[in-house]
Amino acid sequence: MTAIGTNSTVAVVGTGTMGQGIAQVALVAGHRVRLYDSAPGRAEEAAGAIMRRLDRLVEKGRIPAHDRAAAGERLSPATSLAELADAALVIEAILEQLPAKQELFAALEDIVADGCLLATNTSSLSVTAVAGRLRRPGRCVGMHFFNPAPLLPLVEVVSGFATDEAAATAAYETAGAWGKKPVRCADTPGFLVNRIARPFYAEALRAYEERVADPATIDAVLREGAGFKMGPFELTDLIGQDVNEAVTHSVWQAFFQDPKFAPSLAQRRLVESGLHGRKTGRGWFDYSEGAALPEPRTEGPRPAPEAVAVHAALPGPAAVLREMVEEAGIKITRDRTPGESEGFIRLPGGACLALTHGYPATSIVYDRYIRFDLSLDYRAAARIALAASQSCSEADLAEAVGLFQALGKHVSVIEDVPGMIVARTIAMIVDFAVDAAARGVATPEDIDTAMRLGVNYPGGPLEWAERLGAQWVWDLLDSMYHHNAGGRYAPSWALRRRADLEEWVL
User: Fold this and answer.
1) For the chain, how many structural domains are there in total?
2) Does pTM surpass 0.85?
3) Shared-domain flag, residues 402 and 429
């Protein structure tokens, strides 16, 4: 089975935002499209809304007027499921409720031809379960579009336990023919994006609950320091706190309440308060008219040190800081001390400045230590977070702040916790991705593609694993695991195996 031809009818059931978007994609690709909604009149309203969007595309010069006119002739609302009998592909985008989806597909099975492909746009329910009541579950496949469907290129093509290979291939090829970038994945909780992206939200919420920093500062550190387009608090306000929390809870339950996927009590309270984000006018931030978004915590100007000492090689991406220090005109008085395993910068007052790891700056091993957060590109980063041990003085911290300011960075001082903000987030995302690849959820290439296109990450997590080294990620998470009870940070066996292979190859 190959892509559904444009001479075939595509039916879309459910005419909310996602259903309309999917219908528009199929329509622009050249198909006859039938819209059905169980609520009377909704399908006609949706057809009108789609055509108005096409009108705007004509006005902007995105599509010619004759293509819009031809699309209007191919689009028709249906008043009953029976009118979908000639469809070669039916995509449902109804409520995210398993019984409703099962009942819909069971009814469609008595209407459509045996060769009709049945696709669910579910974002969190099991495709296997959706198909569970069908006589021929092999024709049921997941086609998870991302909102807004006409704009975002990613489509997750999900094979349930009983999905025929031909059905999955047809869905994959059809999405590609529609100009989308499909990726294939197994039927796992959250599929690819909603599974691997959980730490981006969860670690920010955990850091907030630990009083590491306020939401605006956490967002700024991840956005300006790590290159994410939006911070997790502003992003969940945009998605809807109720929606984001429901997906988190669904994935957590599907993984039998694995602590790695545990929801946040702080987010639960926000949802219970009715503060769902932009759509309600307030979430983590206030969106009412005239309200100003809070500023992140940013240190005031400090003088740059005249000279620092670099002891051993700074690890991973932080190695470039030595060059940046020299370029800033700061003298390096000492370089590479034999026998020192952890590279660090010695500040003029004697404090040590080092990349964060899975233990806090304050420890019984080290004295005056200041940790700086991870960045995957320190040259491009506009903001760096610092955390000082209890034994550090204000003068020690001022020297560290002044050094990074001399490198052109905004500096946010946060509370001292293992992994800080960026490092713990990136490490958890990498671990989730490595584990998913090892379990055969998807290929490494599809995982990286999904995360770049589905949630606009600045890179793929398996690409990050290569740049950071699996051993560094494993060491950080293993240390965090021993600092935090409950198993949340226990690194996966797949990550340990990857780290061992790195050592063996070296």
Assistant:
1) 4
2) yes
3) no
